[in-house]
Amino acid sequence: MTAKPDPSPAPKPIPESSLSGTSSQINALIGLLSGQGAREGYLAGLDQAVISLSNFLATVILARQVSPTELGVYGVGFITLRLVRAVQEGFVVQPLSVFGAALDDRSFRHYATSTSLIQLLLAAASSLAVATCGWLLTVTGNDVAGPTLFGLWFALLGWQLHEYARRMLYTRGAVLSALLNSILANLLRLSLMAYWGSHDGLSGLAGLDAIAWGALGGLGLALWSTRNYWSRDLSGLRETWMRNWSFGRWVIGGTIANWLAVEFYPVLTAGMISFAAAGAYRALQNLVAPIHMLLRATDTFLTPRGARLFQKNGWGAVSRSMRLIYAIAGIPVLGLLALAVLFPESLLRLLYGETYLPYAGGMALMAVFYALWFSYWPLQTALKAVRQSRPIFIANLTATFSMFTIGIWAIQRWGVYGTIGGQALNSLVVSAILWASWLHFRREARATSQTYPD
Prior knowledge:
disordered C terminus
């Protein structure tokens, strides 16, 4: 018996090009989440988690054992450390991350040695500067800001050198070594704070000294971890300086302007209201401090990686990495902000007792500020990776103008709440300018080359 033919049409075969394209996309995604770069990203996140958790615990320890004024001293000193970090970023760290990531081992040793000499000079100069300014303020009668500034010389010296060595490890992909350095330094720091607290020796300045001692303890391990990155050839110092300056001058301007636009507000609050008000700000900010872990991890990890991607594959590769960062980091950032807004009183009582409950209403403003900050932070890192740092300077300079006009008025009018509201406004200004710049650069890239699709 002859079988009847099936009247239904035969299924059309799936084109091999479609199968190949889908397979390549799946493989790319798997590689992105599980490859060497992803493992480095996870370690970078863990590294920043250690640093962020240590900063969080240090603030909690201080807030429970010292007065709001002493907490304000610590907070203002900590913000001053970030100012020096802004200068360090432009002079040495960001040029090292961008240029050093693409060098072979021999070239990197020469470049890193010259950059390290620049870092030593910077650390010594900044320590001497704060000690001198602090002494002058003290002898002229300022018995709070003067001793605080003078006491920072030790923290600046130790912390800068340790941070530089850590970032050098990031540049060469040795993220695990950087993580071990962070663990050692912060264990020493918190152990000292706990010891001093149990012997009634804890204060705002003592909290800053603990940073220095922890950094010096980690520096020994950092120097051992970077022993293969040094060269005895000290030539090329001038060339390295010019190279770093040609790129880093806009980074310095941008990071200092960013410090003024975002982080100088609590310093203004201490000067215009009191150090106790700055302490209240620090207590509120500490509730969302884990977000700093994601922001710093993005900067330390994505800058050298983005620089390598840009050199090999152009704008499109950096753009894709940036979008992935926003997608992955956005979930925990928004989740933490929502938690802080919904339960501010409970969190403040849990961490500090009753002292800072009157400021619980400021958490909604703090959440807006941090959400706007996050809206441009990965983008800012991507701009540095593609060597377009000028818009960062312009954006933060514009925001600084806003601070010295609207921001000062807001602090005078609403105190701590005005401080947070001014920071939120500045972050909005920076975000708008940076996104406009990114879209402009992307359009130019598309118009001039077909190798930069995104």
